[in-house]
Amino acid sequence: MIPAERQQFILSCLAERDIVSIADLVDRLGVSHMTVRRDIQALEETGRVTSVTGGVGLSRRLAQELPHLQKAAINTDRKRAVGQAAAALVQDGMVIYLDAGTTLLELARQIAGRRGLTVVTNDFVICAWLSTHSDCTLYHSGGLVERANQSCVGGPASEALARFNYDIAFISTSSWTVAGLSSPSEAKGPVKRIAVQQARRAVLVSDGTKYGAVAAMNILPLSVFDTVVTDAGIDADPVRALNDMGLQVILAPDIEGGQT
């Protein structure tokens, strides 16, 4: 079989069951482990499949994101660990962008004591927290209000963000694969794209449970990022793929206190 035929066979197997092992595919295709891994990587780059330990599964579909209050109650320890790991990248005097999201709220809580920071955000909750817990210079983007997510999106928000030059843009997402970030909301795209465009360093901050989910709208490829901050919820195979793409991967300490 040529690669396209093998890849279609893998998708056919996944249509019958959720996860297929690499060993099973090696036997059924009559090729090497390396060949199967290359085929899986090619499919991953399209966003259709996701590597799991010892195998491959179809990417999960994200139809819509949970409201802020519901997200805030999920995976709190994991988000705190990821936020702390991302906060270690912030130095006194930086200009940073904090994207909307509960994990980046955890990051904001960790950097409140930094000196001379300028923080720009589109998130109302982050802005409110920093306004009362820090002395940073603080800007909110304004723009179209997305009530459920407690943030601003769309063209006016992205135009406001374009006025700044960021040392680091911290970007959040509820769905990502090695193919990139996606979202059920098209309006989130311009905000994330302009923040990355205006930054010296772009950092994706997302706990590992969100890896492998795909939503309707493609937002950003992973190639625009320098660094990914995540945790042990992500499998080893995607981490290797991210490293192969030239991305620095920072794994937060696990929620039981050990290192991932």
UniProtKB/TrEMBL annotation:
The keyword Transport does not apply. The keyword Magnesium does not apply. SMART domains: DeoRC, HTH_DEOR. Residues 3-58 form the HTH deoR-type domain. InterPro entries: Carb_Metab_HTH_regulators, DeoR-like_C, DeoR_HTH, NagB/RpiA_transferase-like, Tscrpt_reg_HTH_DeoR_CS, WH-like_DNA-bd_sf, WH_DNA-bd_sf. Keywords: DNA-binding, Transcription, Transcription regulation. This is DeoR family transcriptional regulator.
